[in-house]
UniProtKB/TrEMBL annotation:
It comes from Pseudomonas chlororaphis. Residues 2-105 form the FAD-binding FR-type domain. Gene3D superfamilies: 3.10.20.30, Nucleotide-binding domain of ferredoxin-NADP reductase (FNR) module (3.40.50.80), Translation factors (2.40.30.10). Residues 255-343 form the 2Fe-2S ferredoxin-type domain. SUPFAM superfamilies: 2Fe-2S ferredoxin-like, Ferredoxin reductase-like, C-terminal NADP-linked domain, Riboflavin synthase domain-like. The keyword Metal-binding applies. This is FAD-binding oxidoreductase. Its EC number is 1.17.1.-. InterPro entries: 2Fe-2S_ferredoxin-like_sf, 2Fe-2S_ferredoxin-type, 2Fe2S_fd_BS, Beta-grasp_dom_sf, Cbr1-like_FAD-bd_dom, FAD-bd_FR_type, Flavoprot_Pyr_Nucl_cyt_Rdtase, FNR_nucleotide-bd. Keywords: 2Fe-2S, FAD, Flavoprotein, Iron, Iron-sulfur, Metal-binding, Oxidoreductase. It comes from the Bacteria. GO terms for molecular function: 2 iron, 2 sulfur cluster binding; flavin adenine dinucleotide binding; metal ion binding; oxidoreductase activity. Pfam families: FAD_binding_6, Fer2, NAD_binding_1. Its cofactor is FAD; [2Fe-2S] cluster.
Length: 343
């Protein structure tokens, strides 16, 4: 797990009426390492208590000097409104580091076709990946299919146009606007049918890899389109800002759990719908935790037996999940024989 870190705001750049990019200074002695596609976990004050929010990193490692996140206001949102409206250069933000396994690692010797699909603020990690591919995979082609309401609401509009000028035919930009205010864009939403049509008409190699990020509805449509086209799941990478389905609960009966921590065994029961962390805390056990949202991985543990299901698994890599790691704050026991070791 990364250690908490305070970062200074270098500059705030307005992208649209309701979105800003926050450029954070990289500390001289402890640079924040990240991969294109990952997010930064911010620790924030929410109603007088510590809370966490994840913001995907829009800067690109190896290319941009600042570590940048791009935040779009959510109606009634406690943190996004504060970040968009109140933060200024020189302010400090608390972070719990970078996380996430929606990552892109450029392979300079490879020539492939990266198809990126985004809507609204979902462009943030996609933008980092897009720049990484264009700059560090010179033989690859990139296509971006990007859904928004109208031209004014397109985050990174000028920067994308600039990249198109620099990289020419290597970058295809397909804008899909639900209420277009300029000619030249596809009209409508990124529905399954429209995504299939656009993908069918894309020039460039058919051997493609897909990266998508956007609101739940758009992600469901993109998933359905890729499935209908028979795209192999290992070629599809997705990031969701909101959970796909209602939270998973671990059945309708209480489960018994044993937690091994600092050489001691703690036994407690977990009520239906209760997370492992909440049940542990309710019984007086104090495992480490921070964000309570599955982002920061402070509450990571290893499953020794039994079954656990997680509501969110953003924070752990595929390898960590395969090794039986789980997060207490978003984990629910499914069986009565769950034994966990806090690492
Ligand atoms: C992995 C990950 C990466 C993310 N990256 C970004 C990013 O790059 N840029 C960005 O702007 N946001 C991003 N988000 C969303 C961000 O973490 C917050 O959820 C968002 O800013 C809302 O927080 P809030 O405190 O303003 O809203 P809250 O006060 O938590 O919620 C207020 C209301 O808004 C709804 N809501 C919460 N989040 C969203 C959302 N994303 N879209 C629509 N409605 C929502 C809630 O259900 C609630 O009704 C990301 C989320 C995840 C999980």
């Amino acid at each position: 797990m990364n250690r908490p870190l305070t970062l200074k705001v270098a500059a705030i750049e307005r992208e649209t009426d309701d979105a800003v990019t926050i450029h954070l200074k990289q500390p001289l002695l402890r640079k924040v390492r990240y991969s294109a596609g990952q997010y930064l976990t911010l620790e924030v004050d929410v109603d007088g208590a510590k809370g966490c929010r994840a913001y995907s990193i829009s800067s690109t490692p190896g290319l941009d000097k600042t570590l940048s996140i791009t935040v779009k206001r959510v109606a009634g949102g406690k943190v996004s409104n504060r970040l968009v409206q109140e933060l200024s250069a020189g302010d400090a933000v608390q972070t719990l580091g970078t996380h996430g396994r929606f990552t892109f690692a450029p392979q300079p010797g490879r020539g492939r076709h990266l198809v990126l699909l985004a809507a609204g603020s979902g462009i943030t990690p996609i933008f980092s990946i897009l720049k990484s591919a264009l700059h560090f995979e010179p033989d690859s082609q990139v296509s971006l299919i990007y859904g928004n309401r109208n031209q004014q609401s397109v985050i990174f509009r000028d920067k994308l146009d600039q990249l198109r000028q620099t990289f020419g035919e290597r970058l295809q930009l397909v804008h899909v606007l639900s209420r277009p205010d300029t000619p030249g864009a596809h009209e409508g939403r990124l529905t399954r049918e429209r995504v299939m049509d656009i993908l069918g008409a894309l020039p460039g190699p058919q051997a493609r890899e897909y990266y998508s990020c956007g609101p739940s509805g758009m992600m469901d449509e993109v998933t359905a389109a890729l499935e209908a086209l028979g795209i192999a799941p290992e070629r599809v990478h997705q990031e969701r800002f909101t959970p796909a389905k209602a939270p998973v609960v671990g059945g309708d009966t209480e489960k018994r759990v044993e937690l091994l921590m600092q050489g001691q065994a703690f036994n407690f029961t977990v009520a239906p719908g209760q997370t492992l962390l909440d049940a542990a805390l309710a019984s007086g056990v104090q495992p480490p935790f921070s964000c309570r949202s599955g982002f920061c991985t402070a509450c990571v543990c290893t499953r020794l037996s039994g079954q656990v299901r997680m509501r969110e698994d953003h924070g752990l890599s595929a390898d960590e999940l395969n090794r039986g790691q789980a997060l207490l704050c978003v984990g629910y026991p499914l069986t009565d024989d769950v034994r966990l070791q806090v690492d």
